[in-house]
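Q: Could you fold this chain for me?
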Amino acid sequence: MMIPLLYLAVIPFLLEGFHNSTLCSRVVINIVDSSHYNFVTKSQILNLVYNDNIRILGGTIEDIPVSAIENRINELRELKTAEVYIDFDGTLYVYADQRNPLFRIIPDEGGDFFMDEEGYIFRKRNLYTPRLHIAGGNIDITPAMLENVSVLDTCIKKTILKDLFHFVKYIRNDGFWSAQIDQIYIDSREEIDLFPRVGNHLIHLGPVDNFDGKLRNLQALYEEVMPVAGWNRYSMINLEYKDQIVCRRRQ
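A: Sure. Below is the predicted structure, expressed as structure tokens.
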């Protein structure tokens, strides 16, 4: 009985010593949703892996700073999370999970950003631009929002971005409005204007409250009036007032 017990006690240390002396044979990078979004590339992550000028390929596993590499990669705001580990065969694996963008933000004051489906904001860094709804105008991006804090977090003060998050999620989940609404503009009073894909008119939604009811009224107008009046008859459709639609005829 003593021999098996001694074996079980010693073998973990032997395996650990063998593992630590193993040489790193290759680096494998797996980026989730890389076929849908290209916010982060494999070459970008490889640069972070080799950032310390420490020998990775051919180096011993115990000399590779796995935690430091993982922390560097996790600084990429385009990622939800990143994990780095080394297998027993000496393969260094990097698992990177990209954020799923909800809409694009282009404030009047400058900058180009994305907000993801959890309310996190990150900068647009490369030429790749997924087809998303665009929100522009009077939008303030604070430093806290760029420090990996969701706009839905209680520490973020009242901001139009919280309202935009819920509004865009609503239209994204509705086939009709997802196809119809192209761009969103926030004016100086934090009221919303919409630019449709069909029809040469401006939609003034007004304050964001009761936006679902306002859009239901607008859909009724589209289905019952526009086919008769013509899609270019009005220059503006105002939904600001409760249970009313005010249309301005084109001059």
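A (continued): The chain has two domains: 2-98, 101-249.
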